[in-house]
Amino acid sequence: MENNIVKGLIFYLLVLFLNGCSNKIYTEFVNEDKLYEQSLLYTKKGEIVSSLETKSVIVATYLNPLDKSFKLKPKESFLIAVYSQKEFGDDKEGLEKKECLVYLKDGRKPLEIERLKKENHLLKYIPVHNGWFKYYLVTFKAKQEKKITLVCENRRFGKTLLTFSKEE
Fold first, then answer.
1. Chain segment 18-57, per-residue pLDDT in tens
2. How many C-beta atoms surround the C-beta of residue 97 within 10 A?
3. What is the pLDDT of residue 93?
4. DSSP codes joined into one string, 70-130
5. Do 75 and 1 share a structural domain?
6. How many contiguous H segments (helices) and E segments (strands) does the chain have?
7. What's the pLDDT score for residue 69?
8. What's the N-to-C CA distance of the chain in angstroms?
9. 34 with 154: CB under 8 angstroms?
10. Are residues 123 and 58 part of one domain?
């Protein structure tokens, strides 16, 4: 009987000890990054594949719901990361290639495409960072709609469609 009481007491103390440490363990190993979590909600990835080979990888983040300064403008803004396989003799990369097009499914063409440097502050909104990607801020004229579909196309290899839900 005494042996069971001692075992129960040791078990109870062990549970208290582990419970007291759990918050510290949680904060050490789990990084709560609210911006990263929000960015993931508004980020889509697409690939352009030809002959079972990935020719381009596109990651786009819809900025309007993430940043108040974009929400207040009458524009749809996207942060687009592009990796395109370099073709022989091709001196241009990413969206600078003449074969690469970005537009909205309803036909709207970009008002502006701005290539961003790797240290640009806007890159905090895109959860994917890689030395191979080229980053762009692409803006379109705003329109009332519930969903918006971004089309990234390579005239030689095909296209990928990325659909985002707009915040009401």
1. 666 555 555 555 556 787 888 888 999 999 998 888 888 9
2. 19
3. 67
4. HHTSSEEEEEEEEEEPPPTT----GGGSTTEEEEETTSPPPSEEEEE-TT-GGGGG-S---
5. no
6. 3, 8
7. 85
8. 65
9. no
10. yes
Residue type, 3: N
Q: How far is CA 106 from CA 84, 95, 102, 140, in A?
A: 25, 20, 12, 11
21 and 42 part of one domain = no
* 49 contact partners, CB below 8 Å, separation of at least 6: 55, 157, 158
Beta bridge partners of residue 138, listed in sequence order: 78, 113
* Rounded Cα distance, 84 and 100, in Å: 10
Q: Which tokens go with 105?
A: 């499914």
Q: Quick check: 93 and 86 in contact, CB under 8 A?
A: yes
79 and 10 in a single domain? The answer is no
Pair of tokens at residue 44: 């889509």
Containing structural domain, residue 83? 34-165
Per-residue pLDDT of the chain (168 residues; tens, 9 = 90+): 667 777 777 777 666 666 665 555 555 555 567 878 888 889 999 999 988 888 889 999 999 988 888 887 889 999 999 988 776 556 566 777 778 899 999 999 999 999 999 899 999 988 888 888 999 999 999 988 899 999 999 888 899 999 999 865
